[in-house]
Design brief:
InterPro entries: AAA+_ATPase, AAA_lid_NorR, CheY-like_superfamily, Homeodomain-like_sf, HTH_Fis, P-loop_NTPase, Sig_transdc_resp-reg_receiver, Sigma_54_int. By secondary structure, this protein is α/β, with parallel strands linked by helices. It is built from 19 helices and 12 strands. The strands form 3 sheets. Strands 2-1-3-4-5 form a 5-stranded parallel sheet, sandwiched between helices. It is elongated and about 105 Å long.
Length: 460
């Protein structure tokens, strides 16, 4: 039975440390001190033992005595290939030789400590190394997010989106697994990012498209692997679960995950530990899991395409994002948002949308949802076409409701005809119509009572 290391406190559990020293007392001293703080701490008395351990597991930090039997720590460091330079290293020595210190630093050492030393001195050095390592991870993820142009805000004030926002605010601070369902293009990843942003978790947000990774590579990508575990595995490699330590991993298109991997994921969710491919040891993880799908997983379960037990484990809390066609009142806000955002990004003049333009946009079914709306606005800005001309390129958009009236009508009749046409265009939803008309729902109810002497709520 494999041993599961305790979760790392206070740093993420993915951090692993290897101590290399030929003095048994020093190995025991450092091992006991570091084991209280880190998930995995191993010791070796020689370079040969260290190499054997490194062949089975990746180590984030190496603490190495410079003078070792047979081969010095500096010689070993210089022989490590580029793949293994991902490990930080702290050198120790009992000889105050400036030339050796310079040589160690040139070899890529993160720090150089003279023996004897106080434990606090070593712990401070270790913390600095790990903090720098975690900062590099966070900066990498931040650069990816900035380059992709992600926004952390969720646009939409329809009743359905208000409920989505309410759920997000309530459950974000918890560690519960969440399943997000919705059609393609509805903004599932944006919801997952908002959950992470409001969670208070200090680690990164790591998105994974389960359908974009070859099935035979998915396990290695998620859990990592050791050197030689399969053809082409030349070195140890961290998986995305380790990369997400202290943060959130977002498993998009979870319905595309092969059944074999579904079994492995269920085990991870239940035991809160991962086992890299080729390794015999499990490592505890501190990762919040959010999954998303555009499929109906309940139907996939009945068809035998998705594990029932994994579905129940993922479906602890379900957030359903409605398609854009079911919340036309959000189209106007989204249109203005993307127009401002894309206009600034592209460096072009913004489009001024008329009331008629916005009605057309609301009446369109948007099968590609928010993604399609954003792409349409971007094309419109790039082509520089006025909206009235651009409709010719979108034959699927229906003509707006005609609200013509005879010239001899009194103003009150024109107002009534226009208002009722807008309400009808929104399927009788007076709240949505009131937002488009720029009046309060109370005002609209008063108008209806005045015109028709009916219960204001009768048609809702």
């Amino acid at each position: 039975m494999s041993q599961i290391d305790p979760p790392l406190k206070p740093l993420p559990s993915a951090v692993s440390v290897l101590i290399v020293d030929d003095e048994p007392g020093m190995r025991s001293f450092l091992s006991k001190a570091l084991a209280k703080k880190f998930a995995l701490v191993e010791t070796a008395a020689s370079i040969e033992e260290a190499e054997q351990l490194r062949s089975r597991c990746h180590f984030d930090l190496l603490i190495v005595d410079i003078r070792l039997p047979g081969r010095s720590g500096i010689e070993w460091r210089e022989a490590l290939d580029d793949q293994e330079r991902r490990s930080d290293i702290i050198f120790m020595t009992g000889y105050a030789d400036m030339d050796v210190a310079i040589q160690a630093l040139r070899a890529g050492a993160s720090d150089f400590i003279l023996k004897p030393f106080h434990l606090d001195q070593m712990m401070q050095s270790v913390d600095r190394c790990i903090e720098r390592r975690l900062l590099k991870r966070e900066n990498l993820m931040l650069r990816r997010e900035v380059s992709a142009g992600y926004s952390s805000s969720i646009i939409g004030n329809s009743d359905a989106m208000k409920e989505v926002k309410r759920i997000i605010e309530r459950v974000a601070p918890t560690n519960s697994v969440i399943l997000i369902e919705g059609e393609s293009g509805t903004g599932k990843e944006l919801v997952a990012r908002q959950l992470h942003l409001l969670s208070g978790r200090q680690g990164p947000f790591v998105p994974v498209n389960c359908g974009a990774i070859a099935p035979e590579l998915l396990e290695s990508e998620l859990f990592g692997h050791t050197a030689g575990s399969f053809t082409g595995a030349k070195g140890n490699r961290e998986g995305l679960f380790s990369f997400a330590s202290g943060g959130t991993i977002f498993l998009d298109e979870i319905g595309e995950m092969p059944l074999k991997m579904q079994t492995s994921l269920l085990r991870v969710l239940e035991q809160k530990s991962i086992r890299p491919v080729g390794s015999e040891k499990e490592v505890a993880i501190d990762v919040r899991v959010i999954a998303a799908t555009n499929r109906k997983l309940a139907e996939e379960v009945e068809a035998g395409e998705f594990r029932r037990d994994l579905f129940y484990r993922l479906n602890v809390l379900n957030i359903v994002i409605p398609p854009l066609r079911n919340r036309p009142e959000d189209v106007v806000e989204l249109t203005h948002h993307f127009t401002r955002q894309l206009g600034a990004e592209l460096g072009v003049r913004e489009v001024v949308w008329s009331h008629e333009d916005l009605l057309k946009l609301q009446q369109y079914s948007w099968p590609g949802n928010i993604r399609e709306l954003r792409n349409m606005i971007e094309r419109c800005l790039l082509l520089g076409k006025p909206p009235a001309e651009y409709w010719k390129d979108l034959p699927k958009i229906e003509q707006p409701v005609q609200t013509g009236y005879p010239l001899d009508w009194p103003l009150k009749d024109v107002e009534r005809d226009h208002v009722t046409a807008v309400v009808d265009a929104h399927g009788g939803n007076k709240s949505a119509a009131a937002r488009i008309l720029g009046v309060s729902r109370k005002t609209l109810d008063r108008k209806y009572k005045e015109w028709f002497d009916t219960d204001p709520d009768a048609e809702d």
